């Protein structure tokens, strides 16, 4: 095995830092070790032997076991019959742990698989958990995991604080280039300075590694993140959630498939391929979503083939894609209206972009060279933050 996540590092230590403590565990279905074992299955024998006590378990969006499909589909906590553990939802009535939920917890252990994009809500569940633990004087231990799309590339807009939401609580880029442990350190330094934070680092991970190079098993962190390739396009293609284009939910390859009933997939693919965007090829397709947008309607669009993951730029690619869709289908294309991720006033595209200029520039078909220049300015600003938190070498 090339890479050992923080969970496996702790397992090698026989969970020594947890012994004798009453712990909370924030995890989800992808919180597995190199042998496919879930963190709760590793901790339960110690819990039953009285060597540690699992006081409560917390789950983020999509549920502890990934059973809820879409955004703003909430779930509520329960006592799990198999283990007898109390499970609390952080994507239901509460998104931040309450003092009652945290009662008698001496250490909060966080192990979540992120996918490297600002919109993915697990990092914001981490942020709110850190905030709650700071308020209650509870130490936080984050078990680090790989950024599946590498840690040597950043891309996209830097969140404007005026556009804060649950798909962006603090300023980072759309493709943030950090591990969840590195994000935790940034959150502590910049926003939650009084929280007692420990990061259990991985062994063997290098910043240039993408998930296939780690040798680790892929477990879906959410229902519409079926494979590594999904995460590669997601930092850009998530923007389609804010449109009336299908982003491929209801198909087996969401975010790689996209389209609409009114789209000409062959004409779109031809124009996009003529742009010679780096590291990508668009193949025209038809598909029939079984749920979500355009359910049971035949859509035309494209499948995105990433031909060179090092040169591929998901955010710039999606901006070019949206401009071409508007150019060919201005009468049919629409931005989605609120609500979206608990924001009821601002447009979903603006909270995903973290600003309102990107929407306007896409609508105006601003030359891609000018868009690129604006993005480079924001990336340069973010890079100053990013460089401070790199725990692993290239």
- What is the CATH class name of the largest domain? Alpha Beta
Helix content: 25-40%
CATH architecture of the largest domain: 3-Layer(aba) Sandwich
Number of spatially distinct domains: 2
Percentage of residues in strands: 5-15%
What's the mean pLDDT score? 96
Number of helices in the DSSP assignment: 11
The run of helices and strands is: HEHEEEEHEEEHEHHEHEEHHHH
Looking at CATH, which topology of the largest domain would you report? Rossmann fold
What does the model show?
By secondary structure, this protein is of the alpha/beta class. It folds into 2 domains: 6-224, Rossmann fold, CATH 3.40.50.12170; 228-363, Alpha-Beta Complex (Aspartate Aminotransferase, domain 1). It is built from 11 helices and 12 strands. The chain has a 7-stranded mixed beta sheet with strand order 3-4-2-1-5-6-9, with helices on both faces. A 3-stranded antiparallel beta sheet has the order 10-12-11. The protein has a two-stranded antiparallel ribbon with strand order 7-8. The radius of gyration is 21 Å and the shape is globular.
